Amino acid sequence: SSGINAEWPLRPGASCSSDLTIRLWDFVGFECIKTMHGHDHTVSSVRFVPTGDFLVSASRDKSIKVWEVSTGYCTKTLLGHREWARVAVVSPDGKLIASGSNDHTIRIWEIATKECKAELRDHDHVVECVDWAPDNCTAHINEAIQSENPRAAKSDGPFLVSGSRDKTIKVYDVSTGSCIISLIGHDNWVRQAIFHPNGKMIVSCADDKTIRVWDFKNRRSTKTIHAHEHFVTCLDFHKSAPYVITGSVDQLCKVWECR
């Protein structure tokens, strides 16, 4: 399976795979309750929209698709990436999709119109991950912008973080389409980068086998943890407890306590 997304226990889980399908799973009986067909190649990402009634998927067939959960029907197809669309993530307000691709770009899509609102071209290699900033990041990101340019106007965003095989992490102001922060330090492909729930930090993992904690205001890594014996391919925060969960090619999942 290429990816999984679930919100316990309010809704089913969704998985995607190189078998070209997306599957919905019931977490009570642990059964597949729906299989969605429509992509022509590996499906590498699937996410629920915040309301839970639609899914967004990204595929090696270069497309992003929107699916209605109740029927399993594909309601929209977004085309524009020139190579594999690796990941697609829905904004917290449910109006925008950010997608990252092997074509080195991030695209911002308006779900209602299917229009590509922006193409962000600051990475020099495959974009492995994208993640929207929660609202509590806004003040901290504005501080980071004004620490370099005190005359810069404050922005309401939305803001986005990305990680790439060029080994960098970048933060964007989507309202202007500009890269406002670049974080350099990983020694190999960056696989995941997400904002810490407190809004002040970014946590990332990479093929250099590490997790890194970034103070993005000062554009530096404050902590490096040698987390696994092989590539660290994914990480996420527990929704309510101070834990980070990582997964690795060493076939282990680990739970880390934030201190």
Strand content: over 45%
Provide the helix percentage: under 10%
Strand order of the largest sheet: 1-2-3-4
Please identify the structural class as seen in this structure.
mainly beta
Main sheet characteristics: 4 strands, antiparallel
Q: Give the overall shape.
A: globular
Order of helices and strands: EEEEEEEEEEEEEHEEEEEEEEEE
Number of helices: 1
Query: Ranges with pLDDT <50 over ≥5 residues?
Result: none
Separation, N- and C-terminal Cα atoms: 32 Å
What is the residue-mean pLDDT, rounded to a whole number?
A: 94
- Count of individual beta strands: 23
Report the C-alpha radius of gyration, rounded.
Answer: 18 Å
Descriptive account of the structure:
This protein is mainly β and 259 residues long. The protein has one helix and 23 strands. Strand 22 and strand 23 form a beta hairpin. The model has no long low-confidence stretch (mean pLDDT 94).
